[in-house]
Specification:
Elements (H helix, E strand, L loop, with lengths): L1 E5 L3 E2 L1 E6 L5 E12 L8 E7 L5 E6 L9 E7 L14 E5 L4 E3 L3 E7 L10 E10 L21
Parallel strand pairs: 7-8
Antiparallel strand pairs: 1-11, 2-11, 3-10, 4-7, 4-9, 4-11, 5-6, 5-10
C-alpha cells in the first residue's frame, strides 16, 4: 500500500525523506519545486538515495537546464521518462526513478547544483511530496457485524 508524505522546505541541499526505523520502502514519485536564486549560470537538480551507512545507493542528475530566477516543478517517478531541455519560468519537467528498496535510516536527498556539480545554496526547494510504497503500511480488513436477535424474556 502506498502513502503520501510531505517533505520539508529548504535551500541548496535538503533531506526530503528519511525511512523510519524497521521499515523498507520504495519511492514511487517525488515532486518538488525549485526557485533558482540570482547566481549566474546553469541551475540543475540532483536527487540521491543515501543508505543509513552514508553510502550513495543512486545518484540522479536532472538533464534540464534552468537559469537564474526561474521556477521549475520537478516530478520524478517510477516508469516516467526523463526530459532534457532548457526550462522557462514555470515549466514542469519529469524524470525517471529507479525501482529501489530503501531500508530504515536511508534518506532521499535533493540538491540544487551548477554544471560542475557544485551546490547552489541560494536555490529554494519547496512543495516536496513523495508517494511511498511500503509493506508496513497496511489496510485494516473490515469484519462483518452480525446482529443477534434480542433475548426473549420467559
Amino acid at each position: 500500500m502506498s502513502v503520501t508524505v510531505r517533505g520539508p522546505d529548504g535551500s541548496g541541499q535538503l533531506d526530503a525523506y528519511e525511512v523510519p526505523g524497521g521499515w523498507t520502502v520504495t519511492v514511487q514519485t517525488l515532486a518538488f519545486t525549485v526557485t533558482a536564486d540570482g547566481t549566474a549560470g546553469v541551475h540543475r537538480v540532483r536527487v540521491r538515495y543515501i543508505s543509513s551507512g552514508d553510502v550513495r545507493v543512486a545518484t540522479l542528475d536532472d538533464l534540464n537546464e534552468s537559469g537564474p530566477g526561474l521556477t521549475t516543478t520537478y516530478t520524478y517517478g517510477l516508469g516516467l521518462n526523463a526530459s532534457a531541455c532548457t526550462t522557462v519560468d514555470g515549466l514542469a519537467v519529469t524524470d525517471a526513478l529507479p525501482w529501489t528498496e530503501l531500508s530504515d535510516g536511508a534518506v532521499v536527498r535533493i540538491t540544487t547544483i551548477d554544471d560542475n556539480g557544485n551546490e547552489i545554496t541560494g536555490d529554494t526547494i519547496t512543495a516536496v511530496v513523495l508517494q511511498i510504497d511500503s509493506p508496513q503500511v497496511q489496510t485494516l480488513q473490515l469484519q462483518k457485524i452480525v446482529e443477534m436477535p434480542a433475548a426473549m424474556a420467559v
